[in-house]
Design goal:
The protein has a seven-stranded mixed β-sheet with strand order 3-2-4-5-1-6-7, sandwiched between helices. Strands 8-9-10-12-11 form a five-stranded antiparallel β-sheet, with helices on both faces. Helix 6 runs parallel beside helix 7, helix 6 runs antiparallel to helix 8 and helix 10 packs antiparallel against helix 11. The protein is elongated and about 65 Å long. The protein has twelve helices and twelve strands. The chain folds into two domains: 199 residues, Rossmann fold; 127 residues, Heat Shock Protein 90 (2-Layer Sandwich).
């Protein structure tokens, strides 16, 4: 049967998530944690959305693309944000001169903390800028060092769906990628950016892949089987009280913080309710913990139903009056609440796997400043930068 996640009482939980956001939007206007994101008023937009890849192999090529991008935004009166490490910031400030004061420089550690939350916050900022008659312009170098494979896939997915989420906002995004990154990272970037900047000008990217096709490729491989010792509960009725009690009892045997447990309970309730309404029995809940460099508590809900084509898996924040594929409020909220959400659907049924990072997780940290400087061509970082 077709699936649809409808709004429930999620606003309080989402508000708590939004409190730790990027701080991009005036609180009087709204944040990425709002139940719905306002659509951009078309009468104030005079520029088309752009999402460009900037490959670079040193400081000169970085500046050849980044500097005109930022300076052009300042000249146009855009809201200009640069997300970069200390080395890149020093280069840009020096090249911009006094104009650097008008650029909002952000730390990658803060910006690239959580895929869904970053997308929602940045999209709200684009709408906020458009509502004020301005354009949002972001130079953002994604963080890839120390990511787990799952984190890498989810950030690459965000690069793809940004082309759908931002296309009505008039925002302009440029993503620098060092050519010293692993070949797979650079190859994926060519699939998720419609244009590439070469020699200071943008050219069409022949390797660009339709965003939804790219997302399907991300989910092509089946999920690894749950471990044999996973806690298993077959659900035959919608008794949410006992469901939450069961999940709480297991989670409290792990190091999961209480605040994250509350998020998990909201997310599990939403997913199980959806399975009960639109799936097919048997509906099975499984829970286990995964060790390793990215330890996590995993909660899986599986049933025999199949998701309808074009569901979009809630990858894009819903917009007021919007009908874009991928805008499913409940599942989008689940993505905000969890560290990662994996979904597989097909002839064998559907599985939604929720992951919450446990204390001690090593993934997700940005690269060190010495790595950032070496990407710009500095082989011997200044003393004190390691």
């Amino acid at each position: 049967m077709a699936r649809d996640f409808s709004p429930h009482n999620l606003q309080n939980a989402l508000g708590r998530v939004a409190a730790g956001g990027l701080g991009l939007v005036d609180p009087a206007v709204g944040t990425g944690g709002d139940a719905m994101i306002a659509s951009s008023p078309g009468d104030v937009l005079h520029a088309s959305f752009t999402h460009r890849l900037l490959p670079y192999d040193g400081a000169d090529r970085f500046l050849d693309g980044a500097l005109p991008f930022l300076a052009g935004g300042l000249d146009a009166g855009d809201r200009v944000i640069a997300v970069c490490g200390t080395g890149q910031e020093m280069l840009l400030r020096d090249a911009l001169g006094p104009a650097d004061a008008a650029v909002e420089f952000r730390e990658p550690r803060d910006w690239y903390g959580h895929p869904a939350r970053t997308l929602a916050d940045c999209l709200s900022a684009a709408d906020d800028a458009a509502g004020r008659g301005r354009r949002l312009r972001v130079l953002g170098e994604p963080v890839w060092t120390a990511r787990t494979p799952l984190e890498t896939v989810e950030w690459q997915r965000i690069e793809a769906v940004a082309n759908v989420a931002f296309r009505e906002t008039g925002a302009s995004l440029m993503c620098p990628y060092s050519t010293s990154l692993p070949a797979g990272i650079v190859a994926a970037a060519r699939k998720t950016h419609p244009e590439t900047v070469r020699g200071g000008r943008a050219v069409a990217n022949p390797g660009f892949v339709d965003p939804w096709s790219y997302c399907a490729q991300c989910d092509r491989e089946p999920l690894p089987a749950a471990p044999p010792d996973a806690e298993t509960l077959e659900l035959d009725k919608a008794d949410l009280y006992w469901l939450r009690a069961y999940v709480s009892e297991y989670a409290r045997r792990t190091p999961l913080p209480e605040e994250d447990l509350q998020r998990l309970l909201v997310a599990v309730t939403e997913v199980v309710t959806n399975a009960m309404r639109h799936g097919a029995p048997p509906i099975v809940l499984r829970m286990w913990t995964e060790p390793g460099p990215g330890p996590a508590l995993v909660c899986e809900v599986a049933d025999e139903g199949r998701w309808a084509p074009g569901t979009g898996y809630g990858l894009i924040p819903p917009r007021l009056g919007g009908t874009a594929s991928g805008s499913r409020f409940g599942l989008w909220a689940v993505r905000l609440l969890c560290t990662a959400v994996q979904i597989r659907t097909g002839e064998g049924g559907s599985t939604v796997r929720l992951r919450l990072a446990l204390p001690g997780a090593a993934g997700g940290g940005p690269r060190t400043e010495s790595e950032g400087l070496r990407a710009l061509g500095f082989q011997n970082p200044p003393s004190g930068v390691r």
